[in-house]
Write a structure and sequence with these properties.
- It is a single chain.
- By secondary structure, the chain is an all-alpha fold.
- It has helices spanning 11-18, 24-54, 61-84, 107-126, 139-159.
- Helices cover 64% and strands 0% of the residues.
- α2 runs antiparallel to α3 and α3 runs parallel beside α5 (139-159).
- The protein starts with 10 loop residues before the first helix and ends with a helix.
C-alpha cells in the first residue's frame, strides 16, 4: 500500500475534519473509497474461505484452520474499516479481530469465537508438533463458523449500503 493511500489515515475522522472545507461530493469520494476497500476485503475473505474448504483430507487441517481464520480476519477488517474507519497492516491488528462495532449481530459470541480461532490458527501455523486434537474446535467446525461469520458480515455491510 502506498504511503499516500487514504487508508493510512482514519478515513472516517478525515471526513469529519474536512466536512467544513470540502463539498459533499468530495466527501462522498472518500466514502466511496472506503466502501471499495471494504468490498475488496470481503472478496479476499471469500477467496480464503474457498481455499480453506478445498483443503481436504485429514492432513489438511492446518490449511483449513489457517485460511479459515484469514477469511474471518479479512471480513473483520472490512467491517471495522467500513464502520470505524480503522485499518492497519501491522501484525498487532490480529488482536483486533473480535473488536466488531456496536450493532454487529451476536457481537460478543463472534468475539469469543474469533479469539479462539486466532489462537488455534497460531497452533496450526506455528506448532509443528501439534495435531488437530490440540484445537479447541475441529477444523471443519471452524469452516462452518467462518462461513456463518462471513455471511453475517456481508449482511451487516449490505444493511449499511457498503455492499
Amino acid at each position: 500500500m502506498e504511503d499516500n493511500h487514504v487508508l493510512n489515515l482514519n478515513p472516517h475522522k478525515t471526513m469529519r475534519c474536512l466536512a467544513g472545507i470540502l463539498t459533499p461530493a468530495e466527501i462522498s469520494k472518500i466514502q466511496d473509497e472506503i466502501n471499495a476497500n471494504a468490498i475488496q476485503l470481503m472478496r479476499l475473505a471469500d477467496a480464503h474461505l474457498r481455499f480453506a474448504k478445498s483443503a481436504s483430507g485429514q492432513l489438511s487441517w492446518r490449511q483449513r484452520v489457517s485460511r479459515g481464520y484469514y477469511s474471518c480476519y479479512s471480513a473483520s477488517k472490512a467491517v471495522r474499516l467500513a464502520v470505524q474507519g480503522t485499518y492497519d497492516t501491522d501484525v498487532k491488528d490480529h488482536k483486533q479481530i473480535g473488536d466488531l462495532p456496536a450493532g454487529f449481530p451476536n457481537r460478543q459470541t463472534w468475539k469469543d469465537l474469533l479469539t479462539k480461532f486466532r489462537a488455534d490458527r497460531n497452533i496450526a501455523d506455528y506448532d509443528h508438533s501439534e495435531t488437530e486434537n490440540a484445537l479447541e474446535l475441529p477444523s471443519t467446525q471452524y469452516l462452518d463458523e467462518a462461513t456463518a461469520f462471513i455471511a453475517e458480515a456481508k449482511a451487516f455491510l449490505r444493511d449499511r449500503g457498503v455492499l
